[in-house]
User: Fold these one by one.
Assistant:
Number 1:
Amino acid sequence: MIIKKSELSSFLDKLTGQYQVLAPVKKGLEFYFQPISSGVQADLSYSNSVTAPKGILFPQSETLFNYDVQGETADMQECLDTGKKVIFGLRPCDAKSLVLLDKVFHGEKYQDPYYLSRRANTVLVGLGCGEPRGTCFCASLDGGPFGTEGLDLLLVDIGDKYVVEVVSEKGASFLTGASLPLAGKDDRAAAAKAKETAFQACTINLEGLKEKMDVNYDDPVWGFLHEKCLGCGACTYSCPTCHCFDILDEVKDSTGCRVRNWDACMFPLFTLHGSGHNPRPTGKERFRQRFMHKFKYFVDNYGAFACVGCGRCILNCPVNIDIRQVLADIKAGGDEK
Amino acid sequence: MNNPYLPIPVRLTKNFIETEDRLIHTFTLQFLKEEDENSFSYMPGQFVEICVFGKGEAPFGIASSPTESGFLKFSVAKVGVVTTALHAMQEGSILGVRGPMGNGSAVEKLKGKNLVIIGGGFAFTTLRSLITYILHPGHRGDFGELTVIYGARNPGLLLYKEELAEWEKRSDINLVCTIDVPCEGWNKRVGFVPTCTKEVAPCSDNTYAIVCGPPVMIKFTTPVLEELGFSPGQVFLSLENKMKCGIGMCGRCNVGGKYVCKDGPVFTKEELDRLPPEY
């Protein structure tokens, strides 16, 4: 099927009647995923959004439940979001990150109803990357500019139109009734060519990384890798796979709500015990934790690296720490001096 | 879908000052709804998140035993926001609990073994759960000889004094209490837990050690056990780390790839030796 670019906004207009539609919206020089009320607000001429669309399914701050405790009663109302959503035009790397988050939030014993409810009610329409950014390295992490993992539909830009590829059953039923024109032979050929000629800004070699990290907890490399890190957490807040959070209460009189907010392993308070003891007391341990979590612990627990190569941490780090270089340094190891 | 973040409402029926320094209170909680009580099934070593509405949640090991029905018991030190609010709580107040959490399978592994339970300070809470469980007539036969070594800085800081007195009278448990320095009115053992362990611990053959206490006690007790012939697989330890969700998602209590909340809090020393020392 195809969507002509000239008809994209009317296509989105129709969707906004049935779904909450979230699409890239230009603000200043940057793009953010935001709810749109009209198709013209969406701007697909973007490389990627500043913050990852993970925040739509796992918001930076959300209320888990409201409560009213008086005398002998405790009344609790859970705040599940069951609204139907479409995330339109997200990049394949960000879609893949949701597959990784699924593993965390859909555990064997415990399931997170907040994330999973939104996930189940959201259709993911991806947009292939014709022109990745200089910091993109998705192909090094089992993804690619036209990867479909996690997506329901994939759009391929072929000039004046998008070829729509159906990835999942959910994507197929989403299109039922949309009466989009079928893609012709030329369209399909153009889409295949777009994929073929897609280039990757850079690749990194992760061969042997996990094996190295299985044994390098005490490597001297950790002693200097963290040195310029400020511990600001910008990497974790922009990362599409980071999932750490805090839970706290907000209260007024007898009523209150329990809220969860994103948190970050780079902050000292994250692990500080009530006694004053901190198992990860300095930047060294916290920096090591972030990389160990993504490239060893997550692999041990879920069988995949917790990184999709989106490059946001590189773009957002105020002191230019580059994950690609860090991984190369980890592999090389440090001197015993 | 069952929502693991929603607390079960409970009533605080007793707020008891447990130690002479008044810093540890023992709280007795009862479920508001019978169906919650019936579906709350736990084992010694597990914990819950206790929720003080308006203040937040914190994790505490369960001090009561599943053999004691009708209530849950916790001994809590006054440390931070939630625990300070708990200490000041009126009996009759409504609280919440989430759980039980943690891997409850440790007790199964202890069956058929002689046991030496070693506790220090107020870490004795979950050990009380285990001891009470073992001493229950329905379970006592599942375990071999039982030695309990319990140390505190002074007699006033020992928890559960009435129960300790009862256990001392029994023949199916060898209870050894010790305090750090001599004190008027104390005619029992004086000395630190590691020294005491060296003197009274049973032979390591077919014996498991369960150790729970402050880091310094653990640091000096595990080498003693090793000297006595306990292999790392025969030593069980319970970890504590900062927690929020209690279900392996919020990312803060991990020790290496293991989450204390979901994979622990009880680990064998053999398991811990393979993990980084981030606890």
Note: The CA atoms of residues 153 and 180 of chain B lie 5 Å apart.
Number 2:
Amino acid sequence: MKSELGELLDARGLVRRFGGLTAVDRVDLHVSEGEVLGLIGPNGAGKTTLFNLLAGQLRSDEGTIRLLERDIHGLPPHRICHLGLARTFQVPRPFLSLSVFEAVLVGARFGRATPSRSPASVTRQCLARTGLSSRRDDPVRSLNLAERKRLDLARAIASNPRVLLVDEAAAGLNPAEVRETVDLLRDIREAGVGIVYVEHVMEAVLDLSDRVQVLNYGGTIAVGPPDEVMRDPRVVEAYLGRAAESADGGGTGR
Amino acid sequence: MQRPVSRRHLVWTGAAVVALAAAAPLLTANPYAARLAQLLFLNVVLASAWNLVGGFAGQISFGNASLFGVGAYATSLLWLAGIPPVLTMPAAALAAALYGAAWGWPCLRLRGPYFAIATIGVAEATRIVANHIEAAGGASGLTLPLEQDIGTVGLYALGAVLAVVAVLTCDLVRRSRLGLGLVALREDARAAAASGVNVAREQVKAFALAAALTGLGGAYYAQFTLYVVPEKVFGFDLSISLVLMVLVGGIGTVSGPVLGAVIYLILEQFVLASLADIHLAAFGALLIFIVLMEPRGLAPRLVQAISLIRRRFRRPEAGGPA
């Protein structure tokens, strides 16, 4: 069970139940240095629950999670952040009354320390990378959706993560903004960060991912290179549904 | 990034010290004026301390009297044991900080109304227990020796120092790492935790600091009233008045608690003169009015007005067709 070299995050057999519903069902997931793992699946497939398990917001009922060879199962979110895992949120959760600079500074001052750099200089760099430098003194509440998504990313990378969980960074953005986001994530990956990327905007996730993992009903139904996975009949079925007369389980509601 | 202690601090602190020193002859001239000044300083200390947790972290406490009482009793008991009262103040601050940390640690895991209700429970329990500790005078309290009094001018100076320290602490915390974490967790505790903020620990730190200041306030109170009794120093009235002051002045701002303390004192004296003890009702009415009209309190509006006036004075001809 020893993980290979360069493996940053290695989760095995994760299970999370909510009452009678198994939201995450025996999922294995791993990501290496500089790798982008795309995580896709229909609504309700368990992607966000899986993120909550990995980042410590929820505790898994079964399974192990190792971050940089260290067991992080059951640790609180701030400890997991200190150990090098950061996340963004599907609906950005910015600190509305702070300035843009201060909001990113939260990540730089409280996250995993960046060696020999001051939090202020880390913050300035993160603002520059996310194109928010000109907005640094504006209140967060004045940002639009695309800017808030970038701010959430800036806050996350300011905590100097080795692994970054990105939850729908491109949803609701126009094509030009999607391209900017893809470029930004590519830039973060180039720096050696391992990214787990949940996304419904297929062009973004297929463009960026080295591997794609498909979830449906809480379980993994396929994992592999993007083009291969997208041709997998089980994946096609999960997204488009089966022929109408088929009667096992009722389909996905599309 | 602002430096923690800036020139602005030195200028403002200097101005405050000069103004307070200049006002000293007036505010120590007769017993009534002296008492007003003492109450004002006390309110500024307590409201600023309350604001550290209530304003920055958004955790509304209705139980700060429990911390105030511990400070008042610590000083009174040590004083009666023969230690000069001013020297007992560090012990009062420490006792209140320890007590605050002890009950803040579990209670601050709650948020919003749940935390607020827990604080009422703790403070009321503290009051009832204090009424039964015979070694501390029980329900009839402690009467303190008049002869060791530091005098009217001494009390004025002590109060002024405490008030300046409390306001300065508020401002330093607002600009510190702690303050950033507090505001972040107030805005979104989950996102703050995901960014590495230890939500429980940062809140307890702020609460212990607020408790220390509140305990100092209690120690000061004991020295100018010379009488400490549970119904007063652990009373719910006191806890409520702090919340009112800060809400009226401006929650989460540095100047808000000061402004609220001034307004509260004026209103209290004004109403007390005619109709005893309905000042809380009057203040409640004012609070409702302010929450409806100016939910952020009066301080932000005042700051806005001052900067408008300053701009007008600085560039009288820049206005154009006005």
Note: The interface with chain B takes residues 55, 57, 76-78, 81-82, 86-87, 89, 93-98, 102-103, 105-107, 109-112, 118-120, 155-156, 158-159 of chain A (CB under 8 Å).
